[in-house]
Amino acid sequence: MGSLNLVVPVVLWGREAPTHDICSVLLTRDVKTVVTGTRDGQICIWDFDPPSLKLTARCLLVGHTSSVQCLAQASLTPGSQYIISSSENGEMCTWDIRDGRCLEVFKSANVHSSMIAYQMLNVPDSRLFCVGNYPEILVYDPMTLEVLFSLSARIEPDWISAVHILRPPRRNDEVVLGLTTSGWVKVWTVSEREVRPGEAIYEHESKMIRSLNALSMVCCDYNQRTVLIVTQNDWQIYDAGDFSQLCKVSVPTGERWMGGDFLTADRVILWTDFGQAYIYKLPTNCIVESRAFHNKQHEGDQAFMYGIVKPQHLEHLVNAPAWQYIAIPVSSGAEKLLLRGDCEGQVMLWRLADVTDHQLVQIQQVQPFRCINFAPTVNHSLMKSWLAMNPSPVGVLDQLEGEKNPPRITASLFLPLQGRLACGREDGSIILVPATETIMLHLLHGKHHHYHNWAQPMVLRGHQGRVNCLLYPHGESNRYDMAHLVSGGIDFSISVWDMYTGNLVHRFVVQAGPIVQLLVPPPTCTPRIQNCICSVSEDHSVALMSIKERKLVLLASQHLYPIVTVKWRPQHDFLIVSCQDGSVYIWQMETGHLDRVLQGVQAEEVISACDEHSQGVSSTDAGLANPAVHLFRGLRHRNLAAIRHAAQRGIQQVLGEQNNQQDIHDHSKLRTCPLMVQGLRTHKQDANSHVLFFDIEALIVQLLSDEYALMSPGTLEANELIQSSQYQRMNVLTHPASPEGAKKIAAISVFEEFFGKVKDKAGEMEKKMKEKDKHDLLGRAKDKAINMEKTFKDRDKHGILSKVKESAENVQTLIQSKVESVGIRPTSLTPDKEGNDGRVHISRHLDITAQTLQIGQVLMSLLHSWGLDTSLDTTCENILGLLKPRVPVSFGLLSKSGYMSLVMPTWHPVPHNQMPPINLPPELEEELPPEMVQLEHLTQVFTSRGHWEISSAMTTHHLLTLVSLANTLQDMNAATLIPEQERRRKNHMQSSKSSQGNNPQEVEFAQQQVVIKQGWSRLTALHTVLLPGQVAQSGSTSFTPPMVEILARRWQDRCQEVREAAQALLKTELSRMGAEGRKVLVEEWSAHLPSYTDPLPTTVPTYNNHHEAMQSPKPEHNSTKQQNSSSHNNQTVNNVGNGSHTIVSERPMEPHPHLDEEHEEEEPMDGESHRDVVAQSEGRRKQATAIILLGVIGAYHGQDSQEGFGLGQLAMQTSKALAYLLLAPVSSKMPGHTPLRRAAMDLIGRGFPVWEPYLDVAKVLLALLDLCADTDRLAPSMKYGLPLIPEADSCRTASNALTCIAEARPPAFITTMAREVARFNTLQQNAQSLQMNLHNSVLYRAKTEILRIMDYLIQHKRVFIMDLMVEVTDIVLHCVDPGHLKSRGLNEVFPAICGFPQVSHCPHTRRIATGAKNGSIAMYELRASKCQMIPAHQEPVTAVSFSPDGKYLTSYSMMESKLSFWQTSAGMFGLGTSQTKCTKSYSTIPVPEIVRMNPQRLPKLVWVSNRTVVLMMADGTEHRFNA
Questions:
Q1: What is the mean pLDDT of residues 594-618?
Q2: Residues 640-681 pLDDT 10s
Q3: CA separation (Å) from 1282 to 308, 650, 722, 1121, 1145?
Q4: What gap in Å lies between CA 67 and CA 22, rounded to an integer?
Q5: Is 304 exposed, middle or buried (0-12, 13-18, 19+ CB in 10 A)?
Q6: What number of other Cβ atoms are within 10 A of residue 645's Cβ?
Q7: pTM (predicted TM-score)
Q8: What is the distance between the alpha carbons of residues 480 and 99, in angstroms, rounded to a whole number?
Q9: Tell me, what's the pLDDT at 1051?
């Protein structure tokens, strides 16, 4: 469910239906779904409507790498929507057939030939009994694919070829019948309650019968006495009592039996590999009710074949079909159905009507005898579905005109650097088309349909016959030329193309067979081999060809069998070839000699030792460190890419790289293309369909990178994207005031100012370049080339003319690409003077920004809910730049292990009988043909409501995509997806840096931005809050809400925009559920919530130093606690006294730190299998999801007792789980910076009022402070959208959590921090005797963050600050370095605290006085670093103030109406302790109650002389007092 990347697949199926070679079929018990598995590994889900007998292909499941041998339902309970599939290489998968998600994947060492789901007695879930090429029966849990127990044989163990499970009447256990390939019948009696996990159960009875290599064994459900056993050559009836044979019937000539079943107690049906089935009436000795039962069979009493089940047109089948018989209980008896799927892709269903005994007698009397023919009730296939579609599904090359029967696409390759898709075809041509333009042409309406040069293809011709494979070497490694494209064909040739000009560079013909694969050697090979490409041919040869030298380097052609894999050992200069027979050939690459040939175990060891994915040392540009130098070079050479790159580097330096060389950005997505196009073929002879993969995180990163590159550091600060100035100001106060520090700060500010000026200059230069005449540049480039050619014609003696001409052409191509990059596209390509036709040329420099916006435009247009809000649709089209879809989109869904489901174009989520009436303008309806009107109607219904009725998982992914992208575009200073408008916006951003004042253009631009922001905001609101209601208003009753568990797992997604979208959607969905829905959700997930019975670590974990920490406490799962409650009380699991843990026969169950399901699992412990580790990892992920989900519910709805929170057990368990994730020591099982830990930090901050009673607040605050101790150099603001490294992300999250805690509970934060500061000061006084280094403590390193939070509280929570002024002063003086207060006053150093009249600082005596709520005055002696509490008043102190000369201190209590003067006297000769005494006291006028309640209108003390103070009241009155 949760994948690391958010990817949205879209399928372009093409005009031809995919091949569907069926080898296994399954009809669900509700008779609503048909599942077909193919020999190519795909699974198709079909919707079946019994009343209308309509079969519709819904989705294709892609993931298996070999033939799907068997299918089974995961549960037999009504409404079950899960199936199990098994392939011939041991892959087992659990699928959700509602949306095609793969829930579980397991690679078994055993290959299953049959799987039977069975509901055992007193067991809530079904069990899966599997047999195959192994000597036992394995029983699986179908949801976890874990082996629960096995049925083994003591006597003559052999492969089990057939199995049947039954429950005899009046018994509480199951009887399992198994038949081995050697003919032994085994009987097991099974009761799961008496079976230990993993235990082997042995048979109770065994008997040898005359049935070898049986295919199926079925016991009659009507009497449980007769057994049907089918082999290839005959079928037999046995008595289940003693397994004596009752009758035997041979197969018809030329056919082979494949299986059978009982229609009734005396009728059986048998099917053959010829594609037809036969119905027999059993002889009397096989009928239990007959007196002749179990007697010897008479010659006249034979099985009577009276019916044949076959299609109307019996065709010869290359492969045997797949069959399934199912009897559905109905009120009148049973509905008997027979299902068949064949290699032609046909799915047939027969309803087998009952034939009475009277009818059977009549049939026998008719002469000549004729069998009853049962015609198929349903006969359908993918090919028929495709032919019924008018128009056909779209393909990537449908825009090519003049091709009535276009050649099939046989190879596809996406080129991200050029933004193009290369398609090799059957006729030998290679078509290169712009990817995004082609997608827009086929899927979206818009003006681009009127552009004659839109999506203009380039055609490469050179192969004679089909193009089998394509390779772009530069995409694999930068050492290859960017212009080279390599193709291999059926004509034995390998062609190297210059795809920018369309010319054939070189052709290799060195192998004697079609080329089937092209590879690139690893970068650690020798320099000569690094310039080669590797080709594999059907003639069992491998060739290495040097593109640089244009000659053959190695031809390995002595292989006797087809080649399976090619691997490399660069350190030994070996090329290793593995063949189909298991042999391995080792070749020396440089010399071309065959070193040796290995077989057997040695061959396997060599293959396993090869590192196929060896990575060499990545080459990086050793550019200058100063980005200003790069900027000047970019300006001088007019290189816009260099300018943008230098600007981005400068932004990163401003964010903190000047202090340390650590980069805070996660670069894993900075160079990832947001769009990838992958060819899809279900069979090697099929035409390629294409799957478009939109990577949402890469798209957001690309958009924000381009946007931030246009901003100066001041603009970033103004937009609250970075907080360097605020953190820098706090950081200065926490460090000693030194000249070096001042110089460093000044240098940073000068660099920022200089960088901003240089960046502004870059923007002006870019604008000037765009305003120049582009066509004039092209003309001058041509003239320059002609003049150079004329100049060198007479001097061309050494062949340099061609070089000069090539150089001039490169200059022209470069200028033309620059013209295209700024937005001007030439309308036509004129022929040159040499008579070349108008061949399309591809730009060498792709405009990445324009392509990114185009990708975003396509994706947002396909996902938006068109038709729900007419005014919003108009805004989207005219202002935001979205385009309406032309066809219903075939989406896909990625799930576990990269398996995916692809929606078929033949299926529509809204049934035909629920379709609303056609809503098209009358003139448009009359103009369009009927099929186009129907297509437009289907598209409207799909985009408005059908899109959100497919599945909850797809709804979740699409809503995350829409909301995150809309927020991103809104945060980009109101960007749009209209190319012209977006270009004007960026030009305005560049020009606005140099212009000042509010000119009319600036006002107009600001108004446009407001409208654009409102449009994105409305789109976000529709898909976040309003969507369920709007879909319901459109007539839908099947809206599928988003899945809360997926949203919970993305609560702290790596991408900030996706994270915020997931949080908004989850909060909205929880609110929409209501109290009852949340209660159900809590009951469901609380079972997975771990309970922590051990005390939390006594020390704060160190996140910044990844050393081995102390053993973490062991969480206990609720289910485990309930099951083992009796034994758990008697066992000592944890020895708290000595800190050691004694684990009793189980792995510690901790929440999985990685929420994505693709993360690599742990290594198995002793006695554990890999399957045990996978099962436990899944359980730990559920624990992690439960903690986040319950944490969110508690944080936002915890005050409501209906959810089970409040002062209860659930709140305590959730809070302890969150605290454990925060405080658990860093270890291999619980790394320091993971999404799960970040989620715990975030939820502790958001729901602190709910968790506070159960938390050790001091430990939590210190842990958070430890994480954000480096905030000033690591973390930007929460609005900064680019992905950060895990340390920086944790730092930013912890800082935000601290702010939330301080804002929610200011007294708790202040008092806790004050206690910790007091403890720190005590340790500081005894640091030398205790030999402690307090500079590494959390309170010392996190001074900057503490001071920032205190500044925030002083500004926003003044009421709470006034009640705790002494504690606040303690914290502030701890953070501020004393050196700053030597020469400056407190109002200059930290002016925020001086806004309170209770605080006064005397620079002369270096004392600070603070009035407390209890009437005391805290007197801080900065010289001696001590504090003295003076009892001054009986009521809270309202104001204090030192006299200008520092001799007197005045205190005033508004509640007491008293003003006092204090004087401090030192001991004799400055020795001894100083004493502060009250010299005078005055009674003041009482203050009205209304004034006392307003903290903003408190009286103030102002000294007018060294001995006179003025009490200034809030109403302006003054009262003078003399000392």
A1: 74
A2: 444 444 444 444 444 443 334 445 665 554 557 899 999 988
A3: 67, 15, 12, 43, 45
A4: 9
A5: middle
A6: 18
A7: 0.85
A8: 42
A9: 93
